[in-house]
Design a protein that fits this description.
- This protein is α/β, with parallel strands linked by helices and 260 residues long.
- The protein folds into two domains: 111 residues, no CATH class; 148 residues, Rossmann fold (3-Layer(aba) Sandwich).
- Helix content is 39%, strand content 18%.
- The strands form three sheets. The chain has a five-stranded parallel β-sheet with strand order 8-7-9-10-11, with helices on both faces. It has a four-stranded mixed β-sheet with strand order 3-4-6-5, sandwiched between helices. A two-stranded antiparallel ribbon has the order 1-2.
């Protein structure tokens, strides 16, 4: 439940326009709704400024849909990540106003924040890294950030990155997604001032060990200001970048109150 929704209910009770019983009916699923197979946290938006995010992998499509419906009914936003095609089809049918990104395997409701603020840059080394990069993009957008996406600008051709340095400097946080040797985050952090969140991907040949080589390279970066998330964790990177962006735009602890 959004803070402004709860505030409106409390104000209505205070001025007598809403009875206590009616208010309780509106709050009956708050703070936790037990669906039998899941306990949906409707209080998270109030605590963190962001509704609970649904991880779709491993869930039955119908379960993912029911959790999304519960979140939507509480007047909060909905973000589903790592959703299989069947779950995305159910979500798209139930919420035609939402946004499905099949490459990223995400679903977002509302489809876009009407008051996107600040700037997060998401940089992908190669086209094969796009599923992870777009997961980061969709996450940051769902959290109310404006996103600039730069694709296929890896170290094999740095001349593709250099024309975008001014745009990177304008960002409050930069997500850099790379597989293979994982060198791009170090390069970006050496050229641009904003904090860099590095995402190793499992893209690469045998000795990349499913992204482990890129992960170790990023953890051993000699560039300052690089932090690293887990392999293929575009969600974690986009979430963190959006929190940094929100804190810069709205200022410290007040960022929670300004959440979409």
């Amino acid at each position: 439940m959004k803070p402004e929704t709860l505030r409106a209910i409390l104000s209505a009770v205070s001025d007598g326009s809403l009875s206590i019983d009616d208010a309780l009916r509106q709050l009956r699923r708050w703070p936790i709704e037990d669906l039998g197979f899941a306990r949906v946290d409707h209080h998270r938006h109030l605590r963190r400024g962001v509704p609970e995010v649904v991880f779709g992998d491993g869930k039955r499509p119908a379960e993912t849909l029911r959790i999304a419906e519960s979140l939507a009914e509480s007047r909060g936003g909905v973000l589903v990540t790592r959703a299989p095609d069947e779950a995305l089809a159910l979500l798209e049918k139930r919420f035609p106003e939402g946004r499905v990104n099949r490459r990223a395997r995400t679903f977002a409701l509302p489809a876009a924040s009407p008051e996107a603020v600040g700037l997060v840059a998401v940089v992908a080394a190669g086209t094969s890294d796009l599923p992870v990069a777009e997961e980061a993009t969709e996450t940051a957008r769902a959290m109310g950030a404006q996103v600039a996406a730069l694709h296929d600008v890896g170290v094999a051709g740095l001349h593709r990155l250099l024309p975008h340095l001014d745009q990177l400097e304008q960002a409050h946080a930069i997500v850099v997604v790379a597989g293979m040797e994982g060198a791009l985050p170090s390069v970006v952090a050496g050229l641009a001032a904003p904090p860099v969140i590095a995402v190793p991907t499992s893209v690469g040949y045998g000795a990349s060990f499913g992204g482990l080589a890129a992960l170790l390279a990023m953890l051993n970066s000699c560039a300052s200001g690089v932090v690293v998330v887990n392999i293929d964790n575009g969600f974690g990177a986009g979430f963190s970048a959006a929190l940094i962006n929100r804190a810069v735009v709205h200022g410290g602890s007040r960022a929670r109150d300004a959440a979409p």
